[in-house]
Each structure stands twice: as structure tokens, then as C-alpha cells.
Amino acid sequence: MGVKEILDDVMERNEKQLTQFAAELLQNERFTESVVRALELSTGARNQVDTQMQGVLRALNLPDRAHFDKLLEKIKTLSKTMSDLDSRITKLSGKLKQDTGAAGDTEALETRIAELEAKLDKRDKDLRKAKKDLKKVEDELAAASSDAQ
Q1: Which residue, of 61, 85, 110, is where some domain finishes?
Q2: Whole-angstrom Cα distance, residue 117 to residue 121?
């Protein structure tokens, strides 16, 4: 009998003994109750730690996960608003080019250009405000992230 066969035989016996031991443990009511209780205590302890950690973060004026989620949602909203404004500006620019080519009356054309410029100015102002708001949120996130570390 070679070394490999001896090792295989030992491994097989150990596996059988371990399987038998595990089966006996699982059939033992006290053992299963102890495992269930340990899991319940572990879950309760984790919940307590989470609650206490949120309190500590609030006391230190640091953001928690809910705060980060809110800021992320604001960033997404601002990003969508900026994208919408950019699309509107592009459409107005195209419309201005169309109107410029189709209009024959100079006075009407100048009036239309002034109207479109006013709209573009308003959109540009809205876009700058959205960019400023986005920068503020990004700064808050960066500060919160560096404070949390």
C-alpha cells in the first residue's frame, strides 16, 4: 500500500467521521437552538451598532448613507435639468437659423431675434444656476466624503 492510498484512506475516514459528527450536531435540539439564538443576538447587535453609528455621525455633523443618497439624487436631477436646457438651447439656435433664412421683413426678423436672444439668455441663466447648484452638491459630497474618512 503506497502513501497515496494511505492518505486517501485517512481522508475518506475523516470525511465520514466529520459528516457523522455534523449530522449528530444538527439532530441535537440544544445545538440548533443555540445556533438560532446566536444568530438572533448577532442580528440585534448589528442593528444596535447601526443605530449608534447613525447617532455618532449626526453628533459629529457627518453625513450618513441617507444623506449621500439624497445628494446623489440631487446630482442626477441637476444633471438631467442641464441636459434638458442644453437641448432647448440647441433647438432655439436651430430655430433662429431657420427664421433668419425664411424671413423677408427686417423689422419682424429683428423682433424675432430679440425674442430668441431673450429666451437664450434665460436658458443660459438657468443653465449657469444649475451648474452652480451641481458644483455646490459636488463640493458637499467631497467634503462629506473626506470628513467620513
Answers
A1: 61
A2: 6
Q: Residue 54's CB: how many other CB atoms inside 10 A? A: 13
- Domain end point (choices 61, 77, 96): 61
Give the residue carrying C-alpha cell 444623506: 67
Q: pLDDT in tens for each of the 149 residues of the chain?
A: 788 899 989 999 999 999 999 998 889 999 999 999 999 999 999 999 988 988 888 888 888 788 888 888 999 999 999 999 889 888 888 887 776 665 456 777 788 888 999 988 998 898 888 888 888 888 888 777 776 55
* φ, ψ (nearest 5 deg) of residue 38: -65, -40
